[in-house]
Amino acid sequence: MSTSQTKTLAKRRRSPARQQRTEQVSRNSDSVRERLRTGATTVVVDSAGSEIELDDRTFAKAKTNEWTIRIIGTSLVRIHLDTPLPETAQIVATDAARLQITGRVRLFAYTNTVVDAFDDCIVIARNHAGINACDNTQINATDNTFVCAYDSAVVYAEGDAVVHASGDAHLVLRDNARATTQRGVTVQGPSRGNVSVRR
Any idea what DSSP says for residue 8? Predict the structure, then answer.
């Protein structure tokens, strides 16, 4: 058998190349609502710099309670929820997305996402995310996140997270997490010595 015949046989035996499945990208709230209604378990949102709004009506008719919304790119998104989503439903923001969340939203923020969080929202922040936390929000920050906490916000910070806090904020610091605070801020945790107080 010649060398060229051997190569031809080897090529025939290889499994066919898998075609990459391109995910359908939602550009507005109507598209997100429709994708969830038809049973999508992952919805990628890229508003490409245009602002969109998501609320209780957006998620009300989802076919299943197990889904993930991934907000990517330079999306600008406002989310307001009066009712918290099921634990099996997740909203994730990544890349350089910018979000404003109000009501009772639970959000996972990664990469360089910037989030303004109000009311009773919960944000789980990683990487280099930046979070502005107001009212009664709860922030779980790790890696190199940066958090500004106001009012009665509660921040659990670990890794190399940095927190600036004022008002009646409550901080729990671990690892190398450090904070700059004003008087009146409560600081607890094994790394509570990593605090400087502004006058």
Answer: H
Region label for 135, one of left (φ > 0), alpha (ψ between -120 and 50) or beta (otherwise): left
Instruction: Record the pTM.
Output: 0.87
Closest CA to 74 of 43, 45, 108, 98: 98
pLDDT tens for 62-82 read: 999 999 999 999 999 999 999
Cα–Cα dist 33/12, whole Å: 44
CB 78 within 8 A of CB 53: yes
C-alpha distance from residue 69 to each of 45, 62, 85, 91, 107 (Å): 7, 12, 12, 5, 10
- In the block, tokens 């639970």 appear at 106
Residue labelled with tokens 């450090």: 178
